[in-house]
Amino acid sequence: MSSIFTKIINREIPSTIIYENNNIIVIKDINPKAKLHLLIIPKKEISTINDLKENDKNLLFEMFSVAKNIVKEKKIEEGYQLHFNVWKKWWQEVMHIHLHLTSDL
Ligand code: AMP
């Protein structure tokens, strides 16, 4: 079964899309925990950070590069958080990796 993020990528459910390229989509979190709360999501469905493979390293780098570009564009270089939750005991709700970008600046 495809994840909710794959459904967003495939336009089966709506979302506010901030950025998209061949490998990555960035959306606004539906339940923001900060003034800015974005999710940087690879189009490849990887369940958790535990499932990353060696050949995902470029994808990971690209996710952080996209985050860095957004940070620059939003002028929040002086204060933000990037994090992954991993597994349900640490609040991973959606089993399709996503990098949270949050800031109150
Ligand atoms: P996590 O708990 O790390 O798995 O984070 C999942 C995040 O996805 C949460 O912050 C949710 O608010 C967010 N979320 C769930 N469904 C949607 C959706 N349809 N559109 C945007 N964000 C969503």
For this entry, give a set of tags:
105 residues; five-stranded antiparallel beta sheet; 2 helices
Helix-and-strand structural type: alpha+beta
The largest sheet is: 5 strands, antiparallel
Number of helix segments?
Answer: 2
Name the shape in a single word: globular
What series of H and E elements makes up the topology? HEEEHEE
Beta-strand content: 15-25%
**Termini gap:** 37 Å
**Low-confidence residue ranges:** none
How many whole angstroms does the radius of gyration measure? 13 Å
Topology record:
Blueprint: H1 4-9, E1 17-20, E2 24-28, E3 36-42, H2 57-74, E4 81-83, E5 99-103
Antiparallel strand pairs: 1-2, 2-3, 3-5, 4-5
The structure holds adenosine monophosphate.
In short:
This protein is of the alpha+beta class and 105 residues long. It has helices at 4-9, 57-74, and strands spanning 17-20, 24-28, 36-42, 81-83, 99-103.
Question: Any overview of this molecule?
Answer:
- The chain has helices at residues 4-9, 57-74; strands spanning 17-20, 24-28, 36-42, 81-83, 99-103.
- With 105 residues, it is an alpha+beta fold.
- It starts with a helix and ends with a strand.
- A five-stranded antiparallel sheet has the order 1-2-3-5-4, with helices on one face.
- Bound molecules: adenosine monophosphate.
- The site of adenosine monophosphate has 12 residues, from loops.
